[in-house]
Please model this.
Amino acid sequence: MFFHIVLERNMQLHPRHFGRNLRENLVAKLMKDVEGTCSGQHGFVVAITGIENIGKGLIRDGTGFVSFPVKYQCVVFRPFKGEILEAVVTMVNKMGFFAEAGPVQIFVSNHLIPDDMEFQSGDMPNYTTSDGSVKIQKDSEVRLKIIGTRVDATEIFCIGTIKDDFLGVINDPASV
Amino acid sequence: MLRGEDEDASELKIGEDFLKAKCLMNSEVAILLEHRYDQMKQMSGDSTPLPQVFEKSLQYVKCFSRFTNQGSVKQVRDRYQLAEFELAVIGNLCPETVEEAKAIVPSLKTKGRGHDDEAVERLLNDLLMIKKFE
Model:
């Protein structure tokens, strides 16, 4: 789920960046440092949308760098356990399939795919129902439920299921 | 801070920070990211590659946007007293029946919230009207 939140960060700036463009340099550095990163608490920071406040700078003892506390607004993507969302399938194999929802990768194990769907290998590996009416393959759009999340240093990884009611391949006649 | 084991979106346990935060539907994110994309292009030109997280998010929200008229959707939220998170999930997934809506937003079923089947049906109809006429 995408959220619009306010985060705070202490930015260190070398005195070479001071002068008329101090604020621009600070904001540019903030964007470079923060956009695209990920934390367990807030999820992925997708984009910074505005600066709320830049506090007074404090000179650090010993280095001469100045530390500015910056409050900024940003769009974050944070997946939650129990959340239901739509994703695009990126890879299918006999263990299950991988799907992507924005910056997050989700794995759905074959144990959490309905029993009436079987893995078919080949050029385009897929999961298909016995009557061939429903197929999950690369680029298919599916609705899944997140049942677990794991955070490491640079990304969040999720496990999902499509075994519950109203989950699975999205058929959208309106898009035809 | 909410511990990993305690969080559960189906019961709206997503931590105070996020319960109070502004929840964005894919359509709203698309607008914000497109704007930022234009800014980035202006600042550094076409040569600099976009960060992967940004590019994937932009592609995703453009693909899965359902509404273009955000103002009316917000009105629906106030009328039906939904949490931002619940409205965003319904807005993103566009359930067609009351049964489907209650399956994808289980927190609607919590007792004492006054969301009986009729209220949910009215909510879905309102959203359908908005989608038809935007």
In short: The longest strand of chain B covers residues 22-24. The mean pLDDT of chain B is 82. Chain B touches chain A through 43 residues (CB under 8 Å).
